[in-house]
Amino acid sequence: MTQKHKNIWISAGEMSGDMHAANLIRALQTQDCGITCSGVGGPDMRSAGFNALFRVEDLSVMGITEVLGHLPRILSMLRSIRRTLRQMRPDAVVLVDAPSFNFRIARYARELGIPVFYYISPKIWAWRTGRIRFIRSHVHKVISILPFEVDFYRSHGMEIEYVGNPLVDMVNWDEIDAMTPLPQRIGLLPGSRKKEITSLMPQFAVAAEIMHRRLPGLEFHCVRAPGITEDALRRLWQTDVPLHMHAPDNRYSFMRSCNMLIAASGTVTLESALLGTPTLVTYKVSPLSFAVGKRLVRVPYVSLPNLVMQREVFPELLQENADGAVLARHALAWLEHPEQMSAVRAQLATLRTMLGAPGAPARAAGIILKALGTAA
């Protein structure tokens, strides 16, 4: 009897998970050429042959008040997803980060008896640790990409496998290691969500104006995230200081070419750390979101490089410190004292070895397919 090809539902609830899910899809298809993948995805997943029944671009919000403003649309999408899961009955559900959204899908899958895998596990070690009970009862296995997560999940009785970090696979290391940063180039990465971009980009402009007055030779370069237009970013750049815009393609080479970066907190800061580029980490949400988060967060840092290395390698300039004058002051301290940036680069050299060997997506795919009985 011919074996029925498996259908896997994958849900990337945020743009930051889209690229990781895309590489997982490619690994699944390499190991089982007949497998089909459908669900919630973005442009990277679609380019990998994913059947995006729902678009992750419609979910790119962050913070309590921000989510509340989009709640009717999100709830409508979740109702449609529930109906679709009931009709399709996929062989497995793979969730990628975004617990506030994906926990609903985990509940739907459990009702239907579909095994759930969590790839890029939710950061419950940072806040709302009580949600471990939900994961324990709804998730078959957690597939971790951060080394410090393993002890946390195992201490709570969860089955977890650490596969290494998929970012290691996404970098052409020979090309990156051959590059020398340009001393006058400053990179700006204001994020992928509209709310964070509108909060941060004007402050990046203020910082650039202050920095340019002190060091006129500086060049400011911005990488736009997928789905974000150049016009939208330039409208928020309220200064005469020239801004060079870059598409998201080949962003690793661009980031490596910069002397330093100013970036919204998120996956991009782990990317910049792997590339060895000193980065100021910044973020700003609504006062209510920040007040609630401050009471709930249980870790000393918000950026992944600092969490992995267990010390503040990258300065974290959050909320009222996500201010143009403050950003400029920290940036100029680095630029006018290059030995400080050299010290940061020396610390970052150890990070690459801490995130595992290449092959994380393939190892994750193997775990899923083995559980479904289709692994070679």
UniProtKB/TrEMBL annotation:
Pfam families (UniProt xref): LpxB
GO cellular component: membrane
Enzyme kind, highest EC tier: transferase
Biological process annotations from GO: lipid A biosynthetic process
EC number assigned by the record: 2.4.1.182
Leader peptide range in chain numbering: none
Keyword Lipid metabolism: yes
Keywords of the record: Glycosyltransferase, Lipid A biosynthesis, Lipid biosynthesis, Lipid metabolism, Transferase
A molecular function (GO) term: lipid-A-disaccharide synthase activity
Keyword Cytoplasm included in the entry's annotation: no
Catalysed reactions, as listed in the record: a lipid X + a UDP-2-N,3-O-bis[(3R)-3-hydroxyacyl]-alpha-D-glucosamine = a lipid A disaccharide + UDP + H(+)
InterPro entries per the UniProt record, alphabetical: Glyco_trans_19 (IPR003835)
Function: Condensation of UDP-2,3-diacylglucosamine and 2,3-diacylglucosamine-1-phosphate to form lipid A disaccharide, a precursor of lipid A, a phosphorylated glycolipid that anchors the lipopolysaccharide to the outer membrane of the cell.
Protein name per the record: Lipid-A-disaccharide synthase
Species whose genome carries this gene: Oleidesulfovibrio alaskensis (strain ATCC BAA-1058 / DSM 17464 / G20) (Desulfovibrio alaskensis)
Organism taxonomic ancestry: Bacteria, Pseudomonadati, Thermodesulfobacteriota, Desulfovibrionia, Desulfovibrionales
